[in-house]
Amino acid sequence: MEVTMLVDESTILINVHAKHKEEVLQLMSDNLVAHGFVNKSFTGAVIAREHEFPTGLPMDGMAVAIPHTDIEHVRKKTISIAQLNEPVEFGVMGGTDSERVTVKLVFMLAMEEAHSQLTILQQLMKLFQNKEAMTQLAYATSKQEIKTVVLNHLGTETKGGKCI
């Protein structure tokens, strides 16, 4: 499954005001619950997993976080994207407890199959490594603009806003 098939405007949050990572994760999870993508248990599970296994990813140019949790909390796979008004700190993936990275973009994965996360992460890495695309995402002014940037930089053509 391609990343572009998982990007839906209902799961894109722009100009999010949050003081800390838990607030970001709560807002994103609540939105996924409200749109029927995940069970209510997803919220607590993703926050607990983030504390144990941080998902901040320092990139050349702009750091991101890619929180996710176990498949039993997911109803329908999707990717939620949050553009933060002000960056917040996340722990560094695979780092020590004290390593932090300042994040302005969060890509929350809700996958139904365990192996899907690795495939999706590989595709997203192409986007994360593109400084121009990441800057466009960080300063986009609409959900449609974020969706378009993601679709354009992952090589999938669109027709009328739909993936083809």
Characterise the protein shown here:
The chain has 5 helices and 7 strands; from the N terminus they run E-H-H-E-E-E-E-H-H-H-E-E. It is an alpha/beta fold. Strands 1-4-5-3-2 form a 5-stranded mixed β-sheet. It is globular. Helix 1 runs antiparallel to helix 2. The C terminus is likely disordered. A hairpin with a 6-residue loop joins strand 2 and strand 3.
Sequence of secondary-structure elements: EHHEEEEHHHEE
- Proportion of β residues? 25-35%
* Largest sheet data: 5 strands, mixed
Strand order in the largest sheet:
1-4-5-3-2
Derived from helix and strand composition plus strand pairing, the structural class reads alpha/beta
Mean pLDDT, all residues = 89
Low-confidence stretches: 156-164
The overall strand count is 7
**What distance lies between the first and last C-alpha atoms, to the nearest angstrom?**
13 Å
Overall morphology: globular
Helical run tally: 5
> Over all CA atoms, what is the radius of gyration?
14 Å
Q: Roughly what percent helix?
A: 25-40%
In short:
The protein is an alpha/beta fold and 164 residues long. Helices cover 37% and strands 26% of the residues.
